[in-house]
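For reproducibility, we list the full input for the uridine-diphosphate-N-acetylglucosamine complex.
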Amino acid sequence: MDKLLIRGGQRLSGTVEIRGAKNAALPAFAASLLSDKPLTLRNLPDVVDVKTMQTLLEGYGVAFTERGTDALMLDAAQAGPREASYDTVRKMRATILVLGPLVARFGEARVSLPGGCAIGARPVDLHIKALEALGAEIDVAGGYIEAKAPRGLSGARIVFPFSSVGATETALLAASRAKGETEIVNAAKEPEVLDLARCLSAMGVRIEGIGSHRLLVQGAQNLSPATHEIVADRIEAGTYAVAAAITGGELELVGARLEHLAAVGEALEAAGVRLWPSDRGLMVTRPGRLTGIDIMTQAYPGFSTDLQAQFMALMSVADGTSLIRETVFENRFMHVPELVRLGADITLKGTSATVRGVASLKAAPVMATDLRASVSLVLAGLVAEGETVVSRIYHLDRGYEALDRKLKRCGADIERIPA
Ligand SMILES: CC(=O)N[C@H]1[C@@H](OP(=O)(O)OP(=O)(O)OC[C@H]2O[C@@H](n3ccc(=O)[nH]c3=O)[C@H](O)[C@@H]2O)O[C@H](CO)[C@@H](O)[C@@H]1O
Ligand SMILES: C=C(OP(=O)(O)O)C(=O)O
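The corresponding predicted structure, in tokenized form, follows.
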């Protein structure tokens, strides 16, 4: 397994290209299954999760054709509801997203319960309830979800008890090919959900309320060929914003959108980081000292749970104390013991972490445990004194394109050590 070796202490400056969001690319891939017409996706990130999704869809008979360096044409004309290999499905959460399109188009689907980052129990009850509301019969047994709707799905009112990104995506995907109108109440409004809605609109589905908590979807049986450009990855952007901040540097994040950082942008500003839109994206600099501030993760536009670990690394070297509350996933503090190994002063109590800023971090061997936890260790390594080795970085490769190369180009002393 590859490792990363980081010699801390370099101030970052330069330009980073922010790519399409993996968490928007994955549902867009699933959308291709709805149609027998090709779907071309642009601005795809070159990350392992996207490749895993490609392998999964190839298993269902979707044909892929390259269209330049970062675009693919997906053609599901010959697709069918075959069984996906457990080995592919267990690798990530988003594999559940094929269930809705398969049952909507073919009247049946059998998908293994999904894997993904070990950050909590992560039930799929809301996905199942959404499909049941549209008329699917669902059976969960032996680690598989089986869905049947021999006469197709029918539009319905789906009321979510709370906002779920994945369940909203399942509802949107399935409703797009259901007969009649579907109302989705308490829909998630993360930029990746909006991006899926835009992709489905380009395919010919009429969706009202995009960007709100209430979506109205007019199902369509005949979809059109479409092209869709994946929205820039706000989590990749936020991660590099923290990289600039923690090293006291200045980065231009090309393609990034300040408004998509939402509460994360506000928290960074409050901590002493300056962010402003540039012609090409977003500028980030940290002119003075960092101040510890309190945050609480929440659904968008609240503070993203996918940036909690990175922000904790930043708070580890800020002046004063920061209280970090995780409210989205119950077990998303796996980075804490590793940050402590690097000299951070963090106390965990239930779903809250108290971070007392220290004057400096010290290098140590650390272990990546999940995608965002891993990158928080790299960020801490950028300022730790000495050589930090981060092992098990396959987690990082799931969601960050060329992280080491992008950081190196901006002045970081970082090397990938192949296994
Ligand atoms: C591939 C992808 O896009 N992953 C993102 C997606 O995950 P994911 O779609 O899994 O996250 P959700 O928004 O669904 O999860 C929110 C909360 O709802 C709970 N829940 C969810 C579904 C369900 O059927 N029942 C249920 O109880 C979850 O356990 C969690 O506590 O959104 C999360 C929240 O922004 C991000 O951290 C993940 O990076
Ligand atoms: C948690 C993540 O991914 P997944 O939902 O696939 O585990 C993530 O992207 O941070």
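The first strand starts at residue 3 and ends at 7. The domain at 3-19+232-417 is CATH 3.65.10.10 (UDP-n-acetylglucosamine1-carboxyvinyl-transferase; Chain). Both points were considered when choosing residues for closer inspection.
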